[in-house]
Amino acid sequence: MFKIGKTKKMSSEKIKKKFLKFFKKKGHKIIPSSSLLPRDATVLFTTAGMQQFTLYLQGEKNSKKDFKTKHLTSCQKCFRTDDIEEVGDDTHHTFFEMLGNWSIGQDSKGKYFKKGAIKYALEFLVDCLEIKKEKLSITIFKGDKGVPKDDTAREIWQKNGILPEKISEFGVKDNFWGPVGKTGPCGPCSEIFYDRGEEFGCKDAKCGPNCPNCNRFVEIWNLVFMEYIKDEEGLYNPLSQKNIDTGIGFERIVSLLQEKKSAYETDLFLPIIKELERISNKTYKENKKIFRILADHIRAIVFLAAEGVFPSNVEQGYILRRLLRRSIRYGKLLGLENGFMVFLTKKVVEIYSDSYPEVKQKELEIIEIIKKEEDKFKKTLEKGLRQFEKISKKGKISDMDAFHLYDTYGFPLELTKELAEEKDITVDEEGFRKAFKKHQEISRAGAEKKFGGVGKNATREATKLHTATHLLHQSLREVLGLRVRQMGSDVTSVRLRFDFSYPEKLTVEQKQEIENMINQKIRDGMKVKKEEMLYRKAIESGALAFFKEKYPERVNVYSILDSSGNVFSKEVCAGPHVNNTEELGHFKILKEKSIAAGIRRIRAILE
Ligand code: GLY
Question: Which of 135, 241, 438, 496 has the fewest CB atoms within 10 Å, i.e. is most exposed?
Fold first, then answer.
């Protein structure tokens, strides 16, 4: 292992405090972290420390007025989604923290900007943390897109004792930072790297910062010289003021100072890793990737849930669901029991209750959210994995197969992709997205048409009545015989109406028998199963279909099954339906009458 120096074994908490204290001493105000969900709704998450200061950096708000100073510092909670699939290696995380210092414009003497930022950064690293200056390498912007090469930065670095051969130049990709969204403040940057030594490097003669082959040079600090603003047209215009915006990946610097190759081996993650070893009876060493994924994701899950995000199918909620479901699947690979995430949550709360009291305050709510999602997904995960095994034999995952995994088994597309990658097969992602969009449009249109735009509860009631309609259809056939055929059906949020072929008025006894049968099926708690198949196959398998309807090639088939798996009812239907008949309550026929020769109509409700 490399040796960083005397600062060895400093705790993460101490490192954070040292940083904030250093800048406080230099006249900066310590600003608490802002939320992970930025107020500026153009981006989903806070990905950098500067986000809460955007209006100040753009000159639209006055820092001196609001904070009594132009110099600010913080430790910010951040969340990045780009790297979810990379998590598991040494350096990628979804949730992370970022240390930063800001100078909102220069002072009246034209001070701070590049000169101040470089001086402070070196002073903190070299004098405060006692990192040897010779171990540092610097990158600067080489000029592009109408923004000139940063000779000033080079000059300042050299004046501060950095040797010319330790300074290298890069383009926009590496040395131009921001904006966070499509538009906003941005600028060329200078990055500080720590050289862990030759033994960590590749043998390439050009090996240096940003080396594509090895991790010898660890990026520790990004100093952004924020003097541009990108507009809607993609043009970089000069900002009215020259700002400093810096960022230190906290997990990175903690790994470095604790002399670890990866943050997962530092005190930021160790309590979670140890807990995982305890509850799984497996070792980190032998299951590194899975342990790291679970440790990363649980932090992200806890912090997102603490912000009030709920698992859902859109935006931040979808990311939370993805992380939860991915974790549940990995937990399963380790053989962990349902509820394992609660143990991990407690560890995260322990680690962060001082720095972020909100996680402690919301602990019970967070556990509730996690448990609910675990229960929900565990039910379908097993079946979904079996279904995946089956379809993967085709050598690729089609659009409809991917959609089916999503719709029926709750597999986020990314999970299907990950499973497919493990088998070295492809997923028709574009087709999935089309199917997904179409599905959304259909269900939106359907909901508007059927329920006249009424809210969720109405939808829920109508869903129950849909399932009751299937029970009624089959019970009519059982009691009156197979000549009963569906001729029409209409469901609102309060009642169902069902038209069917039958030549005579129903007797009181028949009606009673039908009602009894349906209520028995409700009490039996029969499972409602959904499958997707070719229409032709569905009919061959005995599913009932409403002949007037024009069905697409692939259809959903809903079956109602008893506890031994025997089918009571099976119909081609777009749904939606409840999962179990026990959710229905009590079925009651209100009226039975003739509406045309040989066609009867039943109105019924659930009480
Ligand atoms: N805003 C500087 C950084 O995120 O690196």
Answer: 438
